[in-house]
Design brief:
alpha/beta
Length: about 375
């Protein structure tokens, strides 16, 4: 007899290979996925009840010293449980006091999360002030570049005509449309939207409407649907929307950004904007982007990346765009042109934490890296 530690990415596939009974595979899968969930401001009475209920089914709740004697009225705790345990607790706590009924309802969001295939969103800019000059293209060579992005592995091509780098200033919607229109027209006239999906990086309703009327299908809004008119346009064309979190605006967003509770504040923002999107009739997929570099310090960026899996409870696709961004330079001083290795490291880790859409400048290199990562993660272990 030999023992071997294994890492399981797809539990159902592993149990099928083992030859387990079909009826038991689902049960075994739920028991194989361990989750640790931080619970903030939990009533001490609820903490004591939840602790006992968790232990009774084989799970556990980490609590501060003094909880049993109610030293503090409210405490933070960490629930350690499998998906099967979460299912049981989400039912069991519905009958309990001290706010546990609401806890039970929220807990359900962390069970049976959707899985999305990984996709690359290639970047093409129609402006002269993008921070990465190799992503800038004019109408003359845009078609060739778009075809190359698609051939290299981009499932989505994101067109931008206004820089959103820190300190950048906005332009009028007329100027933005003038920049973007030639490339949008090229895409439409050559039916390129049949080869890949197209996204417009914009928060101007009139510019977005022009693009959506010409074959585009994704609204990539760095303001997170702040403008009601953007919501109306997206709903009118049944477009997908990318809701990105940003503190303040590009002109001042990097001037000493401060958060009391970063993860919770971003979570609250997404919750509010998802409700808003649905209220306006946006029914297609909603994509969430935590906004790396948009009103965040290096510490904020790293914290968001490390906790990215938390935002999966919305059951929306998660987009990460850290391509060649200055956070890499803050870790190890590196000019923009030499930040591809750091970019790949961030994006590959993001996928491990739940991202499914990677927005990047270097599509070919990302496609290769993602295929290698996928081969490792799907490798049979039995």
């Amino acid at each position: 007899m030999k023992l071997q530690k294994i890492e399981i990415n797809d539990t159902k596939k592993v149990f099928e290979a083992l030859g387990c009974d079909k009826g038991g595979i689902s049960i075994l899968s739920k028991k194989s996925s361990l989750q640790t969930i931080l619970i903030k401001n939990l009533h001490v009475g609820a903490a004591n009840i939840l602790k006992q209920d968790a232990l009774s089914i084989g799970a556990d709740l980490a609590v501060p010293t003094g909880v049993i004697v109610a030293k503090e009225k409210y405490v933070d705790a960490i629930l350690i449980a499998t998906n099967k345990h979460l299912e049981i607790l989400s039912r069991k706590e519905l009958a309990q006091p001290f706010g546990l009924k609401e806890f039970a309802k929220e807990l359900k969001a962390f069970i049976n999360l959707k899985k999305y295939p990984t996709k690359i969103m290639g970047v093409l800019n129609a402006n002269e002030d993008s921070f990465f000059k190799d992503s800038r293209f004019s109408q003359k060579d845009a078609q060739e570049r778009i075809i190359k992005l698609i051939e290299d592995g981009a499932a989505i091509v994101d067109i931008g005509a206004v820089s959103s780098r820190p300190g950048s200033t906005p332009v009028s919607w007329q100027e933005e449309l003038q920049r973007a229109k030639p490339i949008i027209d090229t895409i439409y006239e050559n039916n390129l939207y049949e080869k890949a999906r197209f996204s417009l990086d914009s928060y101007e309703p009139k510019v977005l409407e022009y693009a959506l009327d010409k074959g585009f299908s994704i609204v990539n809004d760095i303001t997170g649907l702040a403008n009601n008119e953007v919501c109306k346009v997206a709903a009118k064309y049944n477009a997908e929307v990318v809701i990105m979190h940003m503190q303040k605006d590009p002109t001042v967003m990097q001037e000493n950004p401060v958060y009391e509770d970063l993860i919770q504040e971003v979570d609250d923002f997404f919750q509010e904007r998802i409700v808003k999107a649905k209220d306006f009739g946006i029914k297609n997929n909603i994509i969430l982007d935590v906004g790396i570099g948009f009103g965040k310090t290096l510490t904020h960026n790293l914290q968001l990346l490390k906790n990215l899996e938390h935002f999966k409870h919305f059951n929306c696709e998660l987009l990460i765009g850290a391509s060649r961004k200055s956070m890499i330079d803050k870790i190890i001083p590196t000019p923009t042109q030499e930040r591809l290795p750091g970019t790949l490291a961030i994006h590959l880790e993001s996928i491990n934490y739940g991202a499914s859409i990677i927005r990047c400048h270097d599509v070919k290199e990302h496609f290769q890296a993602l295929k290698v990562q996928e081969a490792i993660n799907t490798q049979e272990i039995l």
